[in-house]
Every structure is written in structure tokens, then in C-alpha cells.
């Protein structure tokens, strides 16, 4: 017994001094030119696959991934956030990206072996020590589904195009690839004042209002263009939402917005005639529903009164209120 313990102690000592030598003396070669030692790539990849499959969200949380607005939004984000590494389906990765270890795979190869919920986990969390970044806002898994919808659309022959613009030199055109052509989760800006829009852009920039999509967008345009962009988009007419046919929801929403309940304050006490909250009339329904959920769940809390107002909303209330304000 003593012999066994002694042998184990000697082995542990050897292992430890080996590790100290590798770390302390710089014996491990970190060069990206030589790749991994035999077997290490296999271990890393197998760990990656199993880790993703264990943690991926349930598909029951997914929205309709065939929604054209969701796909267009995902395409817009992909163009500036993912294409620099993975390229678009029609372009090539740069020589420098191909020299990364591991190299970012071409996007069609990247999605080949994954289900939509696996892709969601990878895009939200990134992959440690590989260069694959996490989503640049926390608590915004709802936004990640837009990118997944775009990736899923790439599997079919209908290849949605990622818009190409140069945000640094033509910021207005860049913003207008989403605001205007895309409805649903992308808000209308023409119902707001320039001051409100500019405050929101600053909040996205600082992270006070978390959104990976808008954080990416504001990080690309020149800082001193924000107030001009706010003015421009407040003045550029956009289409109103189509009338909502869910009349039951609309009338429930109306009652709640006008009178409130014991737990929910009347929305119109703030959201009418420019009192305390921004205008909501004619805003896109999917955007309203998503924002109300985020306020309720505390992901958005940069305004205390609005967070408190949404605190006790049920899913049915949110459905009704978004239908009401969208059609108002
Ligand atoms: C800075 C470069 C970089 C950016 C930006 C980037 N990726 Fe990646 N991505 C990588 C690398 C490197 C890997 C390979 C990770 C590995 O094999 O361990 C990867 C892996 C992936 C995978 C898994 C691929 C596989 O073969 O299993 C998917 C899916 C993916 N990325 C999608 C995206 C999407 C969508 C975006 C944009 C939101 C994005 N990536 C942004 C570098 C990047
Ligand atoms: C890839 C699509 C996309 C691009 C490009 C984009 N936006 Fe957005 N924008 C969105 C989405 C989606 C939201 C909702 C984000 C959220 O959940 O807070 C949003 C929200 C906003 C808001 C907040 C509106 C409100 O009522 O709260 C403003 C202001 C805005 N965007 C302005 C801009 C400007 C200016 C640019 C160009 C620098 C831009 N956007 C580029 C998709 C985009
Ligand atoms: C006490 C005043 C107050 C009440 C009551 C209130 N809100 Fe708000 N709401 C605000 C303020 C202020 C903001 C803007 C926060 C910011 O600066 O981003 C806001 C923001 C919002 C937004 C985000 C709009 C956008 O373009 O990003 C939505 C949606 C919203 N409120 C819906 C509602 C609904 C629905 C109700 C009723 C259940 C309600 N609010 C009740 C004050 C209020």
C-alpha cells in the first residue's frame, strides 16, 4: 500500500514539475503556424460538439424561423458581424481569416452539422479560445433567433442576400438597410422625436440598453454622426403597420391601455401627447411585444418607471397591448 502511495506521489510530483516547466519556461509553442498536437483537435472538437448539444435551448422557445422579416434582419446583422470571418455565401474568406487556428469555416460548412437550437447556442455564447465571439449583449437570446433564421434560410436554394454598404462612409444608407425595408422586429423611427432617438443611440453605444444588433450598428458609424442620423430618421416617413385583424386582442389592449388594472398602470397616462413615454401608435407589433417582454423580465431596466409599469404584465396582456398600439 505504502509503495503504491509513494509511486503516485512521485508521478504527481513529476507531472507538476512538467507542467511548471511548460508554463513557466515557455516550452509550449503557441504559434498558430504549427496547429495542435495530434489528438488535441479531436478532443477539443468532441468537447465542443457535446457541450453545445447539452446546453442548447429547446426548439419550443424558437419563433417562426421562416418569417421573412426575421430572415432579413438576420441577414443585415450577418453582413457586418459574421461575414468578416465566415464570408457570405457568395464571397471568399480573406487569406488572413483562413490562417486562423481554428479557421472560421465557410458559412455553409459551419451550419451543416447543427440543428437550429444548436446554432442559437453557438451564436449567443461563442466558443472559448477559438476566436468565435459571443453575442455582444446579454439576455438577448430573442435577437439571436434572427441570425439563426438567416442561417436556416441558407440551407435552401432561396439564398437571402446580405446587404452590402459601407457604414463608416455612408451611415444613412447603412441604417436604412434595416429601418424602412424590414418590419416586424425592426422599429419604425419616424414616429419619434430626434432627441428620443439620439438618447437611444447613446444607450445602445454605452450598453445601458442591451441589443447586440444595435450595439453592432452604432459601433460602426462615426460617433459624431449620431445626432444627424437621429434627425434624419425622425423625419423620414416609414410605412404604418397594417391594421390588426385580431379584434378581440385590440379591444382588450385598449381597455388596459386606457384604464389599467390594480397591478398595471394605464399606459396612456404616459404614452399619449408626448407626456412621459415615447409614442407607440402605429409601431410594429413584433417590436412592441419583444420590448414589453424585455421590460417585464428586467432585461431592460434603464428607465425605472417603465420597468415598474411592465412588471406585472402577463403574456396575454403583452399580446393585447401590442395589437392595440400597432393599429392605433
Ligand atoms: C473573429 C472571427 C469570427 C466572427 C466575427 C464570427 N465567427 Fe463564427 N467562428 C469563428 C471561428 C474561428 C470558429 C471555429 C470554432 C471551432 O471550430 O472551434 C467559428 C465557428 C462558428 C460556428 C460553428 C462552426 C462549426 O463548424 O461547428 C458557427 C455556426 C458560427 N461560427 C457562426 C457565426 C455567426 C452567425 C457569426 C456572426 C454573428 C460569427 N460566427 C462570427 C470565428 C468567427
Ligand atoms: C441589422 C439591422 C439594423 C441596422 C443596420 C440598424 N438597426 Fe436600428 N434597430 C434594429 C433593431 C432590430 C432594433 C430594436 C433593437 C432593440 O431590441 O432594442 C433597432 C432599434 C433602433 C432604435 C431604437 C428605436 C426605438 O423606438 O426605441 C434606433 C433609434 C435605431 N435603431 C436607429 C438606427 C440607426 C441610426 C442605425 C444606423 C447607425 C441603425 N438603427 C441600424 C435594427 C437595425
Ligand atoms: C409612468 C410612465 C409610464 C407608464 C405608465 C408606461 N410607460 Fe412605457 N415608457 C415610459 C418611458 C419613460 C419610456 C422610455 C424609456 C427610455 O428612455 O428608453 C417607455 C418606453 C416604452 C416602450 C419602448 C418604446 C421604444 O420605442 O423603445 C414601450 C413598448 C412601452 N413603454 C410600452 C408601455 C405600455 C404597453 C405601458 C402600459 C402597460 C406602458 N408603457 C406604461 C413610461 C411609461
Automatic annotation (TrEMBL):
Key word NAD present: no
InterPro entries tied to this protein: Cyt_c-like_dom (IPR009056), Cyt_c-like_dom_sf (IPR036909), Cytochrome_c_Oxidase_Subunit (IPR050597)
Span of domain Cytochrome c: 69-155, 248-328
Record's keyword annotation contains Chloroplast: no
Pfam families: Cytochrome_CBB3
UniProt xrefs under SUPFAM superfamilies: Cytochrome c
UniProt-recorded Gene Ontology molecular function terms: electron transfer activity; heme binding; metal ion binding
Entry keyword set: Electron transport, Heme, Iron, Metal-binding, Transport
Name of the featured protein: Cytochrome C
Species this chain originates from: Marinibacterium profundimaris
Taxonomic path: Bacteria, Pseudomonadati, Pseudomonadota, Alphaproteobacteria, Rhodobacterales
Amino acid at each position: 500500500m505504502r509503495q503504491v502511495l509513494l509511486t503516485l506521489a512521485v508521478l504527481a510530483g513529476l507531472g507538476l514539475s512538467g507542467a511548471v516547466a511548460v508554463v513557466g519556461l515557455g516550452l509550449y509553442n503557441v504559434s498558430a503556424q504549427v496547429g495542435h498536437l495530434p489528438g488535441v483537435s479531436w478532443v477539443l472538437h468532441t468537447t465542443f460538439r457535446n457541450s453545445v448539444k447539452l446546453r442548447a435551448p429547446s426548439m419550443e422557445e424558437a419563433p417562426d424561423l421562416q418569417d421573412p422579416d426575421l430572415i432579413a434582419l438576420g441577414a443585415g446583422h450577418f453582413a457586418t458581424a459574421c461575414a468578416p470571418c465566415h464570408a457570405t455565401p457568395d464571397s471568399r474568406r480573406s487569406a488572413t481569416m483562413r490562417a486562423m487556428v481554428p479557421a472560421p469555416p465557410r458559412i455553409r460548412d459551419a451550419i451543416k452539422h447543427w440543428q437550429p437550437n444548436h446554432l442559437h447556442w453557438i451564436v449567443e455564447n461563442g466558443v472559448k479560445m477559438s476566436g468565435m465571439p459571443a453575442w455582444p449583449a446579454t439576455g438577448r437570446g430573442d435577437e439571436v433567433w434572427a441570425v439563426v433564421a438567416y442561417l436556416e434560410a441558407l440551407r435552401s436554394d432561396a439564398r437571402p442576400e446580405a446587404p452590402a454598404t459601407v457604414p463608416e462612409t455612408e451611415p444613412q444608407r447603412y441604417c436604412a438597410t434595416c429601418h424602412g425595408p424590414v418590419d416586424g422586429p425592426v422599429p419604425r423611427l419616424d414616429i419619434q422625436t430626434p432627441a428620443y432617438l439620439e438618447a437611444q443611440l447613446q444607450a445602445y453605444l454605452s450598453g445601458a440598453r442591451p441589443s447586440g444588433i444595435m450595439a453592432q450598428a452604432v459601433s460602426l458609424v462615426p460617433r459624431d454622426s449620431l445626432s444627424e442620423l437621429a434627425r434624419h430618421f425622425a423625419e423620414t416617413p416609414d410605412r404604418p403597420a397594417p391594421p390588426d385583424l385580431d379584434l378581440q386582442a385590440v379591444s382588450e389592449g385598449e381597455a388596459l391601455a386606457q384604464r389599467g388594472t390594480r397591478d398595471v398602470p394605464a399606459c396612456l397616462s404616459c404614452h399619449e401627447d408626448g407626456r412621459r413615454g415615447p409614442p407607440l401608435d402605429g409601431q410594429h407589433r413584433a417590436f412592441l411585444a419583444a420590448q414589453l417582454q424585455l421590460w417585464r423580465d428586467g432585461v431592460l431596466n434603464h428607465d425605472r418607471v417603465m420597468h415598474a409599469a411592465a412588471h406585472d404584465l402577463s403574456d396575454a396582456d403583452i399580446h393585447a397591448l401590442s395589437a392595440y398600439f400597432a393599429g392605433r
